[in-house]
Write a structure and sequence with these properties.
Number of domains: 1
Oligomer: single chain
CATH architecture: Beta Barrel
Strand content: over 45%
CATH class: Mainly Beta
Structural class: mainly beta
Distance between the termini: 37 Å
CATH topology: Porin
Shape: globular
Length: 325
């Protein structure tokens, strides 16, 4: 009894020293290359090849039984470039749980819209999320602040009320959809996306079919109001095979996807590694392999790409090593 008591005292002392903050993170080493020197759009490097790195550390602090405060620091740079190093906080938020299925979040957090075609990045605002394992729904209000919208002031950005839901029809089939009520606070967004009128709403839907090691999926998104010219529809469809999980050494998968993104498509910061967010159509092949536990190698090849007018787009190559801890 006394030994167990002493052990309990030592564990309690250790817990007090460690505190209530948990640190996790990841590191990425990446190569990007193009078949021909040049750019696809203004956000891509003009050089034929490009090496960079990124590190992220996230701190989760347990405020109380139901409340967590989160801060994530990210630093990135191109190898050899002494002028581009950047360090910033891309996650600063508080999450409060109401039971096991309902969570409220406020601050700067990650938003995953639909199945990731239009946006999978930082969001400023507040959200209420419900998830019971079979059905999930989210209501959020705030701003997209990365990708094509990065650098916009609050006056020129969109304020978005986002409603989305997804459910499992079976263990193999998941479907979902979203509607974003978007209000333009200035004129820059309207002119950039060539919209005619006062509506900037965006909607879309997706379906995923996962049969053992075979995946088939697709997503569609568009503005509720048509662009004056150039079109604004975006869609992707793909097929894959494998069971890649970076935490399981030796796991792998392969995918092939086709993207068709109109000249004014509402694709701001996609989860996929297609070489352009708009005015692009072409194929993307992906291979993932877990070299060891928590170490993953991914390679991407975008090929047969062209603009919506049929002009050739340079093939795009990308390879990256990802480490999580």
């Amino acid at each position: 009894a006394s030994e167990l008591n002493n052990l309990g005292v030592r564990v309690a002392t250790l817990e007090n020293k460690v505190g209530n903050v948990k640190a996790t993170g990841d590191v990425r080493l990446r190569y990007q290359g193009f078949e021909k020197k040049g750019i696809i759009n203004e956000d891509k490097p003009s050089k034929k090849s490009y090496f960079d790195y990124r590190g992220r550390v996230q701190f989760n602090a347990q405020v109380n039984e139901n409340t967590t405060a989160v801060i994530r620091i990210v630093g990135s740079n191109e190898f050899g470039n002494a002028n581009k190093a950047s360090v910033s906080a891309d996650r600063i938020y508080v999450a409060h749980k109401f039971g096991d299925e309902l969570t409220a979040v406020g601050g700067r957090f990650g938003a995953f819209v639909g199945n990731g075609l239009i946006y999978d990045d930082t969001f400023d605002g507040a959200a209420l999320a419900y998830d019971n394992g079979k059905f999930s729904a989210l209501a959020a209000y705030g701003y997209f602040v990365e990708g094509e919208l990065k650098g916009l002031s609050e006056e020129n950005n969109l304020s978005v009320t986002l409603l989305q839901a997804q459910g499992k029809l079976s263990d193999d089939i998941t479907i979902g959809g979203f509607y974003a009520f978007a209000n333009n606070n200035g004129s820059k967004f309207a002119s950039a996306y060539n919209l005619d009128g006062d509506s900037f709403d965006i909607y879309g839907g997706f379906a995923d079919f996962q049969f053992k090691n075979v995946w088939i999926g697709g997503e569609y998104a568009t503005f509720a109001e048509d662009a004056k010219e150039g079109g604004n529809d975006a869609w992707v469809a793909g097929i894959g095979f494998g069971n890649y999980n970076i935490k399981e050494a030796g796991s792998w998968d392969v995918k092939a996807q086709y993207f068709d993104l109109a000249e004014k498509a509402p694709v701001f910061s996609s989860t996929w590694n297609q070489p352009a967010n708009y005015n692009y159509k072409g194929w993307l092949a992906t291979v993932d392999y877990a070299l060891a536990k928590n170490v993953g190698l991914s390679a991407y090849w975008a090929f047969n790409g062209e603009t919506q007018d049929g002009e050739d787009v340079s093939d795009y190559y990308r390879a990256e090593l990802n480490y999580i801890f």
